[in-house]
Design goal:
Length: 195
């Protein structure tokens, strides 16, 4: 009888110690860690500060002091806007519209090297137009991320603090890009208290 009570007492006493010990070993071994991610776009680490890109908007430097604190979708172009560029602008607009009441928290920008009036600006209103000085400066900033910002059809998500945080490369199916951007923007807007 005494041995039976002793064994039960030891089991009660040792169970929490055994659970803590085994969970600690499991945690530090790295076994069964999730390998997936919750975002669809490529996360830029470290994020790129828009203020370093030499971008101007309304004849003022585009930086945290001069912009409205909105989430933004950027599209860089060199020269004219092709059909792929047009599709990317369409995807950005549709994602913005699909946000419904949250759509006022997101602004879209077409960034080009010239101040000329693009038809696309009228076609996808309200699409803001900003200009950059040197494309080499922008390319250099994205070099460490192995991203060509001028690849046609590329879109970038910018946080309200002026950091480019996500990249979406061109896709064959523009609906796939639309769904990915929309899903990520919904998550970002849900957890964001700014913008």
């Amino acid at each position: 009888m005494i041995k039976k009570n002793f064994v039960i007492a030891m089991l009660i006493f040792l169970t929490p110690i055994l659970v803590i010990l085994s969970s600690t070993i499991w945690y530090y071994s790295g076994a069964s860690l999730p390998e997936g991610r919750v975002n669809n776009g490529q996360l830029l680490s470290p994020p790129i500060d828009v203020g370093k890109l030499g971008v101007t908007y309304d004849y003022q430097p585009f930086n945290i002091e001069t912009i409205e604190r909105d989430w933004m979708i950027f599209q860089f172009i060199k020269g004219d806007c092709s059909l792929i560029c047009d599709d990317a602008a369409y995807v950005a607009r549709q994602a913005n519209i699909a946000l419904n009441r949250e759509s006022i928290r997101v602004s879209r920008f077409l960034l080009s090297d010239s101040d000329k009036n693009f038809d696309i600006l009228e076609k996808y209103k309200p699409l803001n137009h900003a200009t950059y000085g040197e494309s080499s400066l922008i390319t250099k900033e994205f070099e460490s991320q192995n991203i060509n910002p001028f690849e046609e059809g590329s879109l970038f998500v910018v946080d309200p603090l002026g950091n480019i945080i996500m990249f979406y490369g061109p896709k064959e199916d523009k609906n796939e890009n639309f769904k990915q951007i929309l899903e990520d923007l919904k998550k970002l807007l849900r957890v964001s208290k700014i913008g």
